[in-house]
Amino acid sequence: MGWTSKDNDERRRHRVVIVGGGFGGVRAAKALRRLPVDVTLIDRNNHHLFQPLLYQVATGMLSPGQIAPAMRSLFRGQDNVRVLMGDVHGFDLEQRVVQVAGQHELEVPYDTLIVAAGATHSYFGHDEWAPDAPGMKTLDDANRVRSRILLAFEQAEQAQTPEERAALLTFVVVGAGPTGVELAGQIAILARKILKKEHRSFDPREARVVLLDAAPSVLPPFPEKLRRHAEKDLRKLGVDVELGAMAVGIDADGIDVRDEAGERRVPSRTVLWAAGVQASPLAAMLAEASGTSTDRAGRLLVRHDLTLPVHPEVFAIGDMVARPGVPGVAQAAIQEGRHVGKVIAARIGEQPEPPAFRYKDKGTMATIGRTHAVANVFGMKLTGLLAFYIWGFVHIAYLVGWGNRFEAVARWMWTIVARNRRERLISQTSLDSSARAAPAPERVRVHA
Amino acid sequence: MGWTSKDNDERRRHRVVIVGGGFGGVRAAKALRRLPVDVTLIDRNNHHLFQPLLYQVATGMLSPGQIAPAMRSLFRGQDNVRVLMGDVHGFDLEQRVVQVAGQHELEVPYDTLIVAAGATHSYFGHDEWAPDAPGMKTLDDANRVRSRILLAFEQAEQAQTPEERAALLTFVVVGAGPTGVELAGQIAILARKILKKEHRSFDPREARVVLLDAAPSVLPPFPEKLRRHAEKDLRKLGVDVELGAMAVGIDADGIDVRDEAGERRVPSRTVLWAAGVQASPLAAMLAEASGTSTDRAGRLLVRHDLTLPVHPEVFAIGDMVARPGVPGVAQAAIQEGRHVGKVIAARIGEQPEPPAFRYKDKGTMATIGRTHAVANVFGMKLTGLLAFYIWGFVHIAYLVGWGNRFEAVARWMWTIVARNRRERLISQTSLDSSARAAPAPERVRVHA
Q: Which E.C. number(s) belong to this protein (chains A, B) (predicted)?
């Protein structure tokens, strides 16, 4: 069964192309499992990433594989899905083809298209900050962040002046959303608990962790009680929470911060970016192709049924899409993916029309440090250890595969007991890497 | 206690500098734990690598952290050891200082020096093969090899001609020593068992794994019975074992092989190098500085007591040293590291003089595929499942830390049951990476 063979089939099956193998894309593909359709799932990476735990890879707790199963392995038992690794760089909505740069330049035709390409970080127009303030959206990013954090401690061991040491031991996290809060908390734990007995020329507990945000509180989407609690927990861990404070300049030696009191310089060799998010550039591409538009974060404006204007055969879901009242979280993408699967089933006559999509808020939560969390779930505002257990339970439940669940729990327990982290590799290739190389395009028509 | 503070101490303690945190260096440092000495352990990486399991990282079984604990964490409880991350690039044997490029250009003085810098791979004068035939000595190497192997399968899914697909599905391993045998076996398992149900445009079992060696048999140092058995096991797994066959050219599209029958071309997009080994360049540097010489593999010729001629205060151990009758294996480095620790103890009057160093051969073994191995241990030549259990037991015993032991065994069991591998990440930064950047030197004198 060649990749190009199906077109010769007299009774050609309905072709669904899914762009993006994140929460939305994978759930959509799974939702199509019993339907007589041919699904092609395209992603630039070979793995499905469980992003909510990415910060644990960046701080040495979990290994990349534990939060990122190979995409193909998710569809071993689902014969109607083909996985294709490549970069989507264009759509022809009239001809109904997706342009993909993979091993070759491919044109993949569809009858129904689902675009679920997610979001990336945004430097608010300051892309020049990127090399000195790495963000965290991919596993390569997380490996780079981990290498940077651990390298700073190694370099501090060799510092020649107190100023140099202080700059090496100052970690600034920009952005106090869930990722920033969790990252800052884990760096504090790393310095105060894990590395405590491992350095000889300084006490790692001297390390300063700064969490900056222009907003007046941490975790803006959470209820006020939880925001205040999270801030208190962070301060207890020794994190300097600086609110109403904006990054106005970042270079290799530090960050310029502007707040009420004016502008000041924070010398730091490790600035990490957890602030802005913008939709995948595919959102703008689709907007242009279909005559709709995007919002300030580059998110595509879709119709209520998640389709494009004039193109009911094209769905867009997840973080790349703006829908009033629906937050940019994994749950939303998952629910949308499932919904689109049902709509497709109805269209090809296999199932009744589903009710209009409605987002069910299942709550939000964030961990702080080792055994604390804040959770806004089941209509309750929970904090401390109980919130941490619920956080753990929910994340384990959504992690793919029993093996990964088992290993993640074992590592969390071990980490608390041994006060160590398993994955403390500083990767030279991570540190050296800059932008990824673009594959050489070579035009070949598939499914011609 | 600053890194530079000790020199002001009136009763300065004996200073031991260890270059290299592999098996030899770490064991030497551990052997000095109860002595009144100050140990500085210098390594270019921040982790201690358990090299015998590196091939399992390269084939997606284990995570980097599971075979590479952070160097510092090994010495948490040993206050007399300082770990320093940096590249050693020179020795001044007269002034007794080691030149290190770390965060700064450092000069680290010693009273006793132990150099245990190991070996790297050698392309036998064909360094131009390196980009197209990556070797495997570091974790970054293993990540690159894994990314290359998995990418070839992804690209094969998109191949446009049978020839292209065949080249993408041909994996050539050059060198049939333990690393080459284990790597070839694991690639075969990957294709035949793990990926079996994951591709749609070809059957992964079509993949061809070629194991090449110029020698007339696999595993040259093993007894003949085991060599024959290993070869048979490899063929059963579907590996093409080609002996008496020499690589004469390697490029991005394949390898030129010369054997009895003449020269031929094997089209392959994934050639892996497990053939030559040469001593660290520090061996030649020490040879020049001390007036001794190196052998063909660049290994340093040392005296019977593992010291340099004219410099009894300088020891060299492990794979970078040539000693008749001692193989280049972990056991030799471990035993030498321990021995040097005892010699130092005797010299500073803390222990009686130890007997002259004698290598105790504890046997050799190699795994083949999932549950087979050959082992030459306890005077017995073992094969099959029993050898595999012994292999597993010994490797687990030598792995550092109960957590890693537990996780490795759990993964091996899970892999057999689930027919999957945990760590199947294709890393873009691994694929893009070339040579590592040299740190900018800046001269600062330490311990002046």
A: 1.6.5.9
